[in-house]
TrEMBL record:
PROSITE patterns named in the record: WD_REPEATS_1 (PS00678), WD_REPEATS_2 (PS50082), WD_REPEATS_REGION (PS50294)
Keyword Oxidoreductase attributed: no
Coiled coil location: none
Renumbered ranges of WD repeats: 20-61, 353-386
Protein name in the entry: Protein DECREASED SIZE EXCLUSION LIMIT 1
PANTHER family attached to this UniProt entry: GUANINE NUCLEOTIDE-BINDING PROTEIN SUBUNIT BETA-LIKE PROTEIN 1, TRANSDUCIN BETA-LIKE 3
UniProt-listed InterPro entries: WD40/YVTN_repeat-like_dom_sf (IPR015943), WD40_repeat_CS (IPR019775), WD40_repeat_dom_sf (IPR036322), WD40_rpt (IPR001680)
Domain of life: Eukaryota
Pfam families according to UniProt: WD40
Alphabetic keyword roster: Repeat, WD repeat
SUPFAM superfamilies associated with the record: WD40 repeat-like (SSF50978)
Length: 404
């Protein structure tokens, strides 16, 4: 078992390169734009801000979710194009288009999920090859090709209730995987998949038709606290989902088998609060209300988890986790106001970052791997430059071109 105490014997941790101030309430989440030098942050009072990561200034600000609902989660991805999604505790997920003057004042779509909980939404992660990752880091705009995600015939499941705004899909039909949103369900122990483009529910995990059966796979596990959707290369284009629960367990789902999970593990003795999957979709990291951080691998042939590293933190409570796109480092956001950085492959502690004066809610890496953003209940967002990726030399580029 590793320990983050090792990092205390290393050189002093760096200071943030910038601190973004402007929010008037606790900042719940932050994410980077996949292509533009923009950072988005959402606060508990419903404000959604856009920051320029070069000038460190606010580009625009809107009130995305009214009342006391607040913005709980934000997501951006190449599949959304020039738009982002915000999730509020008002049971709504809203899409916002990025304009020249900032974010649109009105949402371009609204998804009425009717879910009120503490689980942040997840877009579908598509793996990129090691070469594809390096190409993107080198400044190319070439990304992974869009993948189509076949969806089973769900007409036999009572989740497809027209009154709830769901939509039926014929056998053999498909959806763009980058147009799918996953979220903890209206029944808080379940996971729902939504079609962003049509604002309709696709399916529920586990299937509602099996909800009254003995041995229900999630009801005894309590609330769903975290979800991560992805498309493994081995799945033939079908969406897989990792979901973490109040009892500390994590389940692995394949939409082709919605009645029961492929596998289940329990890495945490208390609620599993956050989970992130790496860029290749071959493993991930999870944190919980206990003092354990788990790094695991996914065996796609057997459909099983494999624990790689179990890290014991000095203090309990990991609210957020993230893995850098190049799969080299991982970061966690702690209740103790600290950010912890680890070597993702080896599991050893690299640094403990001390700036925030209140609970840290989330961490996020930029897509070029140069920045780490952290947000906190102290109303600030901090930007950090840690172990930046090496810029390829002319020799490396010449060698790569010769190999082609």
């Amino acid at each position: 078992m590793a320990s983050d105490r090792e990092s205390q014997r290393r050189r002093p941790s760096p200071d943030p390169v910038a601190v973004l101030r402007g929010h008037r309430a606790a900042v719940s989440d932050a994410c980077f734009h996949p292509d533009l030098p923009l950072l988005f942050s959402g606060a508990a009072d419903g404000e959604l801000r856009v920051w320029d990561t070069a000038s460190h200034r606010t580009v625009s600000s809107i009130w995305a979710h009214g009342g006391a609902a607040g913005v709980y989660s934000i997501a951006a991805g190449s599949g959304l194009g020039n738009a982002i999604i915000s999730q509020g505790r008002d049971g709504l997920c809203k899409g916002w288009v990025i304009e020249e003057a900032g974010l649109s004042r009105r949402p371009i779509f609204t998804i009425k999920t009717s879910t009120y909980h503490f689980c942040k939404m997840s877009l579908v992660k598509v793996p990129c090859s090691a070469h594809g990752t390096q190409t993107k880091l080198n400044g190319s705009n070439i990304g992974p090709e869009p993948q189509r995600v076949p969806i089973e015939d769900n007409t036999g499941s009572d989740v497809l209730n027209p009154a709830e705004g769901t939509q039926e899909y014929d056998q053999g039909s498909s959806l763009d995987g980058q147009n799918i949103l996953t979220i903890a369900g209206q029944e808080s122990s379940e996971v729902e998949l939504w079609d962003i483009k049509n604002s309709t529910k696709i399916m529920c995990l586990p299937k509602r038709c099996s909800a009254n059966m003995t041995g229900h796979p999630t009801k005894q596990k309590g609330l769903c606290m975290a979800v991560q959707a992805f498309i493994p290369c081995e799945s033939g284009g079908y969406v897989n989902i990792l979901s973490s629960y109040e009892d500390g367990s994590t389940l692995w789902w394949d939409v082709r088998k919605p009645g029961s999970p492929l596998s289940s593990v329990k890495y945490h003795s208390e609620s599993a609060l956050s989970i992130a999957i790496d860029g290749l979709c071959t493993g991930g990291i999870s944190g919980g209300a206990d003092n354990k951080i788990a790094m695991f691998s996914l065996d796609h042939q057997k459909g099983m988890f494999s624990l790689r590293n179990e890290i014991e933190s000095e203090r309990p409570g990991i609210a957020g986790t993230a893995i850098r796109p190049d799969n080299k480092i991982a970061a966690t956001a702690g209740w103790d106001h600290r950010l912890r950085v680890y070597n993702y492959n080896k599991g050893n502690a690299l640094a403990i970052l001390k700036y925030h004066s209140a609970t840290c809610a989330a961490v996020a890496f930029s897509h070029d791997c140069k920045l780490l953003a952290s947000c906190s209940a102290d109303t600030t967002v901090a930007l950090w430059e840690l172990y930046p990726p090496k810029t390829p030399s002319k020799i490396d580029i010449t060698t790569e071109e010769a190999e082609k």
